[in-house]
Amino acid sequence: MAAHHRNTNPLPALWQDLAPLLPTDTDTAPWSGPRWWWAGALDVEGLALGSLQALATALAAGTGAAGRSRDIGLTSRGAAASFASYTHLRVNGQAVGGFAPLSGFRRTIDGWVRLHANYPHHERALLTALGVASPDAVDAALLRLTAMEVEDRVTAYGGVAAAVRPPAEWMSSPAGRALQGEPWIRLNTAPAPAPSRTVPAALRGGFGGILDGLRVLDLTRVIAGPSGSRILGALGADVLRIDPPATPELVEQHIDTGFSKRSAVADLTDPPAYRRFRELLEEADVVLLGYRGGSLARFGLDPEALRADFPGLGVVSFDAWGNAGPWAARRGFDSIVQAASGIATIYGGGEGDSWRPGALPVQALDYATGLGAAAAAAALMGARNRGISGSAHLSLARTALELMRLPAPPSGTERNELEPELRTSPSAYGELTFVPPPLLVDGKHLEYSRPPQRYGSSALVWE
To answer: What is the mean pLDDT of residues 193-217?
Structure first.
């Protein structure tokens, strides 16, 4: 069994945001390993370990309350590897692709902007916004505009871009100010109604076989939500991810986050598909929502509507910029939030004209937010057995604020290369080499139950 780590530099207690859902005698989940390894300007290690500890603490509290106490812990090595899982993924021995050519930092007439064009529809929006016909003309077009003009134009055309700002400028902006009074995980709780279906035996008293019998609808994309739901699947939940047919997920991203879950495609504008989807909701325990609120509200799938229609459903939502500020309807990704919030400036380097913005060593905002969403889902399910139901909300921008508020690693902290522990498995996509889930259960490494299934291959049914 893992032992509590004796360290004069403790982890940030991110799990405390979930305290209203946990038993009063909840103990912090144990961890072991070095406190720092990336050794950068911000405590990315604290965010990684703290968010993973939030999940482990919520899970352990649920099993303890059920009288089936399990020792659930984590290690620095596992956290470091899981926050770089896409980097470590190999398909038939080959590394997967990174950012698309148009994604990244680009100069403007007065500074820098970060573009995101990994998805074809975002690339088309970017080219249209800049009035160019091909990617080769992008740099010249950017040098005729200010960073803010690029941000505004690309956003107006449905693309994704952010001016690189200093932290103080972001904090004083209306969008930045809207986040500052928010907790990392915002809860909204209510008395739990009588269950609408027979609760699986494993869940009647808590988590049983951790999450065996739990039904999770995964309406998330990219990295944050899918990386969190794959851990719920590894813990035994039946996770069904549903994507729209018009904008399919990138295949390699699906492979990285598709372990221990099923994948379906459904057009919710089609009445029969929408009716079947509502039937799934009637039997679901948790739904994860990773789309902008406005895009869900037209289907009656925003958190408020879901809680009204399905009072026993645990609803966990997250977005890029928060759901209350002026950027609530804006698209965003980890890299874009880093640029807008000031992180890219903090990690910038060089002098004078040679200065350029930088990035975190991993997409920590995505992975930490995904772990926070998984932790909230586990806590809501544990609380349901004590007569509490509710919803939770997170955002990448609020996770960025959490990171920037943490004390910086001590001066002189050295990098510590932590060798990842890897697994191999055959799959529908070929031989995979991958990082296992970053949790220890009763001293043993948690494993994925199955490799990713072919994208969109599952029916709209519960197992």
So the answer is: 68
Q: Is the predicted pLDDT of residue 253 greater than 70, yes or no?
A: yes
Helix crossing, 334-341 with 364-384: angle to 10°? 110
pTM, to two decimals: 0.94
Bridge partners of 190, per DSSP, are: 389
First-to-last alpha carbon distance for the chain, in angstroms, is: 32
Residue type, 322: G
Beta carbons within 10 angstroms of residue 111's beta carbon? 16
Among 122-126, 164-168, 202-206, 260-264, the minimum mean pLDDT is found in 202-206
393 beta partners: 186, 317
- Just give the CATH number of 14-95+183-322+362-445: 3.40.50
From the list 411, 336, 446, 311, the residue with the least C-alpha distance to 29 is 446
Give 115-174 pLDDT, tens digit per residue: 999 889 999 999 999 999 999 999 999 999 999 999 999 999 999 999 999 999 999 999
CA separation for the pair 220, 116 (Å, rounded): 18
Q: Which amino acid is at 313?
A: L
CA 167 to chain centre: 22
DSSP 3-state assignment of 398?
helix
The yes-or-no verdict on residue 1 having pLDDT over 60 is no
| Virtual torsion, Cα 151, 152, 154, 156, nearest 10 deg | 150
Report d(CA 338, CA 301) in Å as an integer.
Answer: 28
Cβ neighbours around 411 below 10 Å, total: 5
- The gap from C-alpha 236 to its chain's centroid, in whole angstroms, comes to 19
Beta strand pairing call for 262-265 and 238-243: parallel
Residues of the chain with CATH 3.40.50: 14-95+183-322+362-445
CA atoms within 13 A on the CB side of 214: 35
Q: pLDDT by residue (tens digit) across 321-370?
A: 998 889 998 999 999 999 999 999 999 999 988 999 999 999 999 999 99
